[in-house]
Amino acid sequence: MNSRRTRIILTIVLALLLGLAAGGYMGTKWAASKNENEVSVQSEDTDGSSGDSGKSSGKNMKKIDQAYNLIKKHYVRNVSDQNLTEGAIQGMLKMLDDPYSEYLDAEKLKQFNEQIESSFEGIGAEVSMEDNKVTIVAPIKGSPAEKAGLRPKDKILKIDGKSIEGLDLNEAVSKIRGEKGTKVKLEIERPGTKKPFIKEITRDKIPVETVYGDMKQTNGKKTGVIKLTSFSEHTADDFLKELDKLEKDGMQGLVIDVRGNPGGLLQSVEAILDVFITKDKPYLQIENRKGDKEPRYSKLDKKKDYPINILTDEGSASASEILAVAFKENGYDTVGVKSFGKGTVQQAVALGDGSEIKLTLFKWLSPDGNWIHKKGVKPTIEQKQPAYYYANPIDASKPLVYDQTGDSIENVQIMLTGLGYEPKRTDGYFSKETEQAVKAFQQAHKLKADGKVDSKTAETIEADVVAKIRSGKDDKQLKKALDSLYK
């Protein structure tokens, strides 16, 4: 084959073998492995065996060249070398059936780095590909996605009325993102709902502020609460500063809250674990394709002299799970509900033109060697939130009225109960008591008090629920974490 085509094809193959670029990803944001687990050029077949690798590689390269020639010479339209190259890369990654291995062209990589390093504009939600659907891992704290009530496991079916079936994750994300002040309509499929619903979200600037500290009084004791919304470049430094501040203020116990935290840089969570998990047990193990394990240890001699609880939920993923299971298997309590379940490690390979491949290279294992992938970390103390936290959107395309039944009416009743109105039942039957509760809500919000749930009333109920959840007033999980700290 000619030298130009050879160079294109070798770029594709060698990109998977060259040493790793600086930085990397966990979930969608991991950091590079520390030492021997590096990718290097070697004479191996793709299954790791040696021997006839040259012959096997030669046959495969010939087949690629034949396909390239066929398309370039005979396809009905002209196709650029760049499009063929990128298509080949994307095709190989698609064959892996791994939602966390992906190709980032120069523009997508730039956007991704903005998200890690400073700020970006969009709706503010971490997403992954699950069951071939773009799936919310977690909305970012204070983001438009959180304010709109998006939840972990929500699946995005359409963007601005157009199906995204067949798009890869980055293509879908590029359509969701946009300039501050612009709007995007997402069609959402939510577990437990019978049909999809629409959320219109106004994009905004999303700052990457990841550490929030607070001091609370619990049973007469000063208790620090540190919430981590992701593990970005400066998270560990900010966490350690906040921890030092709380300790100097006389903190007697600590709750680390990683609910809704989709993950981040590996070195960030490692730096945090270094100050809590003692050196007699690894806080993490990295396993390569051959099954070789590399345990990671701190240099810490002594545990903190105060109790610590970890808060998790279904939006706690990747680095958050590393933190949670490390504490759990070192004798601390985790509180909340089971986490997301992502136990693989990705690293970035630069392709030399500003683009990268993010490839799954390792598994990460817990201190005791457990793999939580697709299983999650089960809390030692299970605690759900109030029922209205889990209520689904209200379908009021036709007004809901007295003597009707249905799931949307049940959701109205659950939400009204959570907001302090009393429909007296939550079984989905629109009773007279439900009608009175709706009227009371409408009067309080200066709506037409007719007891019917139209789209305006439904929208206002949902907005109040989202606002109350964000206020933390009924945060049973945090309360349980605080109450169980000094047992």
**CATH homology superfamily of the domain at 211-345 and 362-386:** 2-enoyl-CoA Hydratase, Chain A, domain 1
Q: Approximately what portion of the residues adopt beta-strand conformation?
A: 15-25%
Q: Provide mean pLDDT, rounded.
A: 86
Radius of gyration: 25 Å
**Terminal Cα span:** 73 Å
Give short descriptive properties of this protein:
487 residues, alpha+beta, Pdz3 Domain, 2-enoyl-CoA Hydratase, Chain A, domain 1, Muramoyl-pentapeptide Carboxypeptidase, domain 1, six-stranded antiparallel beta sheet, 32% helix, 21% strand, flat, disordered N terminus
What does this protein look like?
The protein is built from 13 helices and 20 strands. It is an alpha+beta fold. Among the domains are: about 90 residues, PDZ domain (Pdz3 Domain, Roll); about 160 residues, 2-enoyl-CoA Hydratase, Chain A, domain 1 (Alpha-Beta Complex); about 80 residues, PGBD-like superfamily/PGBD (Muramoyl-pentapeptide Carboxypeptidase, domain 1, Orthogonal Bundle), CATH 1.10.101.
